[in-house]
Amino acid sequence: MAIRKKNTKSPPVLSHEFILQNHADIVSCVAMVFLLGLMFEITAKASIIFVTLQYNVTVSATEEQATESASHYYYGIKDLATVFFYTLVAVIIHAIIQEYVLDKINRRMHFSKTKHSKFNESGQLSAFYLFSCIWGTFILISENYITDPTILWRAYPHNRMTFQMKFFYISQLAYWFHAFPELYFQKTKKEDIPRQLVYIGLYLFHIAGAYLLNLNHLGLVLLVLHYFVEFLFHISRLFYFSDEKYQKGFSLWAVLFVLGRLLTLILSVLTVGFGLARAENQKFDFSSGNFNVLAVRIAVLASICITQAFMMWKFINFQLRRWREHSTSQAPTVKKKPAVTKGRSSRKGTENGVNGTVTSNGADSPRNRKDKSS
Prior knowledge:
This protein has 374 residues and is mostly helical. Helix content is 70%, strand content 2%.
């Protein structure tokens, strides 16, 4: 008798496709673990480190010369836990925008694979840049940065931050850290990964540098300026995908991009090269967060100048490539007119052929047909 084998089903495994399709649900469950931990006394202390901002200091009214006491924050090692939690939140928000906004537009527009990925990238970044610009501008206005630019370097080190300032930097770091797993979730092409890694790395390097060196005032102004220019580029690209005749946004972006680089260099040199260089306290003190020494100032200015030069180099290459594509697309239309005149004039010489050879047009010409009939 034949022995029947029992159908034994293998236990479910977290496969590659399963993670890609359900990564938002998985991340949501992990984030809910930290939120539920706040409800229990045993786990509340650990969950608070991830969910809320740490290193709170209450400043008295006499010290701040204000009518009420204010709460300020400084940074520390526990901020890594907070950044991790809000990285999970950024992944969830990314998935919500992708599913309920961008995917619906993609179904209607029927983009190609190349346009599909670029449209998703511009859609996500334009939403982030717009939100960051509005949030950063609100902080600049509320803390009187616009009316008094000397705040950028006065009373350095700026080791005490308001709630809005610290939460802004935590959110910025969390967003750009979330871009690493998104390379896997969005199935980014291998040839595009190095470009994306450089792009993300530059953001993290400069944001973390401004945060750790207590240059958060200067960093906030430069981020708002840079994000506004980048928002204009990505929103122009979204309009371009809907209508390829739309080019005005790119022209405006090109002008503002160059102005943005100049303003970035001017503000950086004014703050670091002149403001901090003339400050009285120029001693390195890690405990108080004072990094106002010559070596650090040179390193900060060098990193900013190199980054701006790199961005200008990429910008010039982009404009040259775009100009070449435009010239090649216009070239066939220019060559059509002489091609028609050549065709008319060459009919007279088809009897004897072209370059010493007899063609079919010459054999079937009206004069040959007349000779045959006679």
